[in-house]
Amino acid sequence: EAEPDSARITSGVTTEAKTAREALTGNSETMTKVISELKAKGINPKDIQTASFNVEPVMDFSKDGQPPQLRGYRVTNQVVVYVRELPKLGEVLDEIVSAGANQIQGLAFVVSKEDTLKDDARKEAIANALRRAKLLAVAAGAEVGNVLQISEETASAGPVPYAPRLAKAEMSVPIEAGTSTLEARVTVTWALK
Q1: Looking at beta carbons, which pairs linking 50-59 to residues 24 or more positions away fall under 8 Å?
Q2: What is the pLDDT of residues 180-190, one digit of tens each?
């Protein structure tokens, strides 16, 4: 178990207008404001990265069999923001929404020392495997010999879905980081003596 110490937010702006140019202009203005506010909140520019940018037509589909009609265009611009100071996360989420972001696609908590902690878990997994192998070998009247094969089962956890609830403008978004479980699973094959 480890406590997260940072987070990644995927957020963005979606804008619709009659023309692609109008949608792009409106979207760019709002996204520029969102990014400026993030930087003003102390987010390092290297911790803000554009994740996706789309321009697409918006069609109206009638129910009476008429062909679809072009209603306008939709522009979506999303960024991933790395928040290194977890206590500021609620304020950052407030700021993103207040600055004009109308999408928050996800929030993932990060344990910055995850690799080191996983290495410790791997060592512990190997020690557990050897302890069990010795127990079984003794029960069978044998001894554990050389390692023949080691494999590790790897899995990654996806981001934690999150949708902010803004009850009052003056109150920051309540955030509970909880704990993350870091796990290592190994399979070891030993020769028996």
Answers
A1: 50/77, 50/78, 50/79, 51/10, 51/12, 51/78, 51/79, 51/80, 52/12, 52/76, 52/77, 52/78, 53/77, 53/78, 55/20, 55/23, 55/24, 58/16
A2: 777 888 899 99
